[in-house]
Amino acid sequence: MIVDLVDTDHHVHSTWSDDAVSTPAENLAAAQRAGLASIRMVDHVRVGTTYVPEFLAEVAALPRVDGLEVLTGVEAKILDASGRLDVPADLVVGPGGVDRVLIADHQFPGPDGSWSPRRTLEELAAGLSAQDAMSMLVQATCSAMERAGRGQLAHLFSLLPKIGLHESELLDEHLTAIADTAVRTGTTVEVNEKWRCPGPRAVLALAAAGVDLVGSTDSHEASTVGSYSWVAEAASARRLVGAR
Amino acid sequence: MSDSSPTRVLVTGAGGPAGIAVLRSLARRHDVVLLAADMDRYASGLYLVDEGARFLVEPGLSETFVDSLVELCERERVDVLFSTVDVELPRIAAERKRLDEVGTALAAPSLETLEVCLDKYALAQRCDGVLPTPRTELLGASDPDSWDYPVIVKPRRGAGSRGVHLVADADALRALGEDEDTLVQANLPGDEYSVDTLADADGHVVAAVPRSRLRVDSGVSVAGATVADEELEATARKVAEAIGLVGVANVQLRRDAEGRAALLEVNPRFPGAMPLTVAAGVDMPSLALDLALGRELPDRVPFRELAVVRFLEDVFLAPSEVLA
Ligand SMILES: Nc1ncnc2c1ncn2[C@@H]1O[C@H](COP(=O)(O)OP(=O)(O)OP(=O)(O)O)[C@@H](O)[C@H]1O
Ligand SMILES: [Zn+2]
Ligand SMILES: [Zn+2]
Prior knowledge:
- The structure holds two protein chains of two kinds.
- Chain A is built from seven helices and nine strands.
- By secondary structure, chain A is an alpha/beta fold.
- In chain A, the strands form two sheets. In chain A, strands 1-2-3-4-7-8-9 form a seven-stranded parallel sheet. A two-stranded antiparallel sheet of chain A has the order 5-6.
- Chain A is globular and about 55 Å long.
- The two termini of chain A are 17 Å apart.
- Chain B has helices spanning 17-26, 65-75, 89-93, 96-101, 111-118, 120-127, 170-175, 230-242, 274-279, 284-292; strands spanning 7-12, 32-38, 54-56, 80-83, 105-106, 136-139, 151-155, 165-167, 179-186, 192-199, 205-217, 220-226, 247-255, 261-267, 307-309.
- In chain B, the strands form three sheets. Chain B has a six-stranded antiparallel sheet. In chain B, strands 3-2-1-4-5 form a five-stranded parallel sheet.
- The A-B interface holds A 18-23, 26, 44, 46, 77, 104, 106-107, 116-118, 158-159, 161-162, 164-166, 194, 217, 219-224 and B 1-2, 4-5, 37, 41, 51-52, 54-58, 68, 71-72, 74-75, 77, 100-103, 320-321, 323-324.
- The structure holds adenosine-5'-triphosphate (ATP) and zinc ion (2 copies).
- Residues 134, 152, 154, 158-162, 164, 185, 187-188, 192, 219, 252, 254, 264-265 of chain B line the site of adenosine-5'-triphosphate.
């Protein structure tokens, strides 16, 4: 069964993320109010994070809601060009652990570790071409998908504006590489309301290649769970592709 | 950051008058997306920004405060951070590099400037000889008979006027003993002024706007007026130069027995009464944002004389919108 993008919210933070304000129970109630078919509870991790088992236990203990699937995830940044992820070494993905690892482009994955936006801008000014920077980012994203096991691309390409680049500079082969790897590794790709990404061209290309797309508010307070405007347009565009 | 993508600005201390003043000033800019943070879910400034841009943070004194703030800035792709909370400021400024690494510029004076302002003894020493500065000594470190009475005794690192009192004579001062964290200061008997001062990246003062506080209620100025007074402006400029100010500080001056404007103290942050300075023609939060973004500031921004009376305002919300 194909669920519509706007009936899913696969990126919802709770108080297990430092600055978020709603508990998993509040987010669940909000998902129910919004009439969602599926919610993924996600919190931020780093290599030193220890709370994951408690977070999973709290989500597992939530009351069941008819017609609402509850999934879990952790969000981690890509650390470098090899696609290493900032996750605890003992993280369990799959049965007994989190359902998916959300792969986040919080920094630019450079060959020698993550680059700050300023460093990236400096490298671009010093001769790194926009094409090569895109290729590094895409390559790192693909490697991260391989490493994650079961991944989800969080706010794909949200980094670009911060480093002076734009999705229009992506080559078709970049999108093909991401789509192929996502299909092969079973990685889902979210269409993110908060960061309004990836854009329509990427969404259509991914959908056409058979990538499993999900909706995402990236919300950290219950009041915004499942609330879409920008994603709703992407969803209708995807419906057109599906109808063809 | 490309010119087309809006600047993401996080303001901490969204519940205080300074935080609200910064939020309201920056809300008028169309190239800015505002995010607000506070430790208190009822902080009113949180509700001046869009739903989804409101964050609860740890208290500024908590051990992991800076770590979690840096992470928040990274995840939210914050371009510029304004901190309006006294206790947070030096801790954040000490980690400016880490913020820089995640792409966040801190709109605050340098750590060196903050430190000299927060230690009123260091500040008096720094300004002595540069501008009229009341004699300032550590308690017990000077001969009580060498002072004109009454004198002021106050904490070396105080805020909110706590622990400030007049001491009537040498015997009373002697009786207070010795304390490195307490200051003895010559009494400045004249009128008091707050001068909102902005210096550019080279330390050049772009504006110094003196305000008289016509009425103060529990430390908050509820009525005031800008005052065009060359001497006050010039004195604040000298203070800014002496402390190496880059950015915004609130210079407090008071007239001495001879009627000269003398140094009282410097609060190295946005004051709650900032809206008056903005309305008088100098939008310091907006200029400070340009400064943090590395943009050129005008050489000088003039202000006009303007008075203000202030009142509490209400933000109405659906009950469900109040952060749970
Ligand atoms: N040398 C002085 N002469 C006269 N009055 C003084 C002197 N020092 C302090 N005061 C009075 O005490 C008040 C508070 O002093 P000061 O500004 O040094 O401390 P503070 O605790 O940092 O104050 P705040 O945070 O409220 O500005 C001043 O506004 C002034 O009214
Ligand atoms: Zn997220
Ligand atoms: Zn993220």
